[in-house]
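Illustration: Disease resistance R13L4/SHOC-2-like LRR domain-containing protein.
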Amino acid sequence: MNFFEGVFPSFIGSLEKLKYLDLSGSYFVGVIPPNLGNLSRLLYLDLSTLYRDNPIETDLQWLATLSSLKYLNLEGVNLTKTTSYWLPAINMLPSLVELRLPSCSLSMLPLTLPSINFTSLSVLDLSDNKFNSTIPPWLFNLTKLEMLDFEFNRLTGKLPDSLGYLKSLRYLNLSSNLLEGSIPKSIGNLTSLEEFNLETNQMSGIIPESLGELSSLVSLDIYDNTWEGAITKAHFAKLGGLRKVSIGNYVRNIPLVFNISSDWIPPFKLRYLETASCQLGPKFPTWLRNQTQLTMVVLYSARISGTIPDWFLQLDLQLDGLEFVDNQLSGRVPNSFRFSYDSFVDLSSNRFEGPLPLWSSNISRLYLRDNLFSGPIPHNIGQVMPNLTYLDISTNSLSGSIPLFLGNLSQLEAILISNNLFSGEVPHFWNNMPSLFCIELSNNSLSGTIPRSLGSLTSLEFLGLSSNNFSGEVPSLKNCTHLRILDLGDNKFSGPIPASIGESMPNLQILSLRSNSFTGSIPLKLCGLSALHILDFSHNNLSGNIPHCIGNLSYLKSESTDYYSYDYSGRFELVSKGRVFVYDYGSILYLVTSVDLSDNKLSGEIPIELTSLIKLGTLNLSMNHLTGNIPANIGNLESIETLDLSLNKLSGSIPQSMVNLTFLNHLNLSYNNLSGKIPTSNQFQTFVDPSIYEGNPGLSSCPLPIVCQDNEEAPQVPSGDGGEDDDSKLEKLQFVISLVIGFCAGFWGVFGTLAMKRSWRYAYFHFLDKVKDAVLYFVSAIGTYLQKRS
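Result:
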């Protein structure tokens, strides 16, 4: 390893007898000089760099004279200028044994070569480039390849059967591409293969049993694909050296089933086992009985029920990680598991009960969310597990107060205790946790004021305190400059909205203060929140005008398709389309855009600047005191799906531009002073519910006239020329055309068939004769009866 920096030394090209050149780890700028081609005796050349932003670049024409070169490593060197002919340049190196070109910005992978000269190649590393083609056929002529690495590209297509030609392969990494189809049966020919990695592709289908022929296999990673069918013991028949298995995906459908008998004894001793969305249940897999060397066990969504068996505890494993997420495991969790340093436990989404389990100080991440744990947080958690960095015990039945000794977890980065039964005030221990980036305390019965010590957390990104009984004013959070999500909804906060939210939180993306008692006006400083995509101030006592600068919310007015994703646990409630939606932060919440100012005391006109928020999906201004007209260019809100302006004092007509809102599916304009005609084209043809428009006596011409007949009188048409407008004439013309078409269809539907088919014509007139006879008989009988009565 070297640490040279500056311009690439050009004098190296004069060292004609040089055989070994290693400048790896350097930071050069500029261009690698072409005079390196003078080094005709060079066998080993390593110019790789550890810096991805290293500006050094080159073409490869100078490689032509390095006919003796056996090792070439240009990792991180920018080869953009040579991307179209890098392979022909390499093809002039017949002695080459190892070629490493990862992270070189290559984009073109030629599919054909007239001839192949570098057939001695045993190592080919082209990972982390931009290749977007299929796997080229010439690759399978490199029969001496022992290592092939295409990780982090965009390779497409299927794995061909010719993969089986590479019988010398020991390491095959095709992860993080766009490959499709299944694994070819010829995979069984690669009996020297030790590592096989297809992780994160788009592959599917049945896994061939020929996989069980890979007698040298140590690591099998085919995770994050969509496999189906059954895994049997034939898939592991000769895999005695297997140490790692990673298979499945996290989409929660179960297309892959482990069809293995309970008395099967595997030929291998695994150290790493990861299965996701693979059915191993309903019972805990008994074939793990002899897996005494396991250090990582992940059984995610495996449809396992019952309790953790005693025999699994008796394996006495020393674990780096234990994950039994999304199963139906129940009972109490034993405290006898042993863990290595910096390990994690995730038992989320099961039916475990009893008190919270405590293990060793080696655990750094503990996830016990969505279970049936009860009782208080153990008083000695800070002593038993002082190295916790992530604690998630949300969605259980835990009770009591938040213990003061949680403040001893000085390394904590995230604490999630939402959806429990905690009560009392929040302790003032936050100064002891400088690394906290996530605090989620929502949906409890916590009370009192927000501790001012929360404002000292300079790393805080997420603060969720919603659905509690907090009161008082919100303390200053101006030091929380990295805050992305602030949810204080459904509490009893009062006083003004702190202007510091807009002044010191430039990264804020979600701001919810709904259902509190905030007063005063909306701070103008909030208009500077350039990343905001959800703003909810509904159900407060805010007054004054809606700021005109609301049109400055740049994310909502941008045509950019960039989105901010969330990797937090927990849920966020949002009212849209008249009902409450609950989003997981890890789901599509980052796509949701909303401004909700409903149920306040806001007055004045709707600012025209608001119509520039073209990315806005929900706009709710209902239950205020807004006056004036609906902005004429409200049709600019091209992404709007929900628009609620009800219960205000708006006047004027419904703007014609609203017919351009083609995504609009929920509309409420009721109880205003609107007048004039309701638009009838595009989306408005579907808005026929009278409750959308009720309370506006001046509105007329509903999309379906029968809907509005109780609310309006039929218009009087004056006589003489001009008595009918164009719309009326068009409606009459449409009625006449419909009547003619209906008559023709009915006439020819009956008489046309009779004219063309003799048997139907005969049956029809025979039927008429019978009807005529029956009518005459009935009339005759009635006449006879009346004569007798007289």
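Reading the tokens back as a structure: Confidence is low (pLDDT under 50) at residues 704-727, 757-763, 776-781, 784-790.
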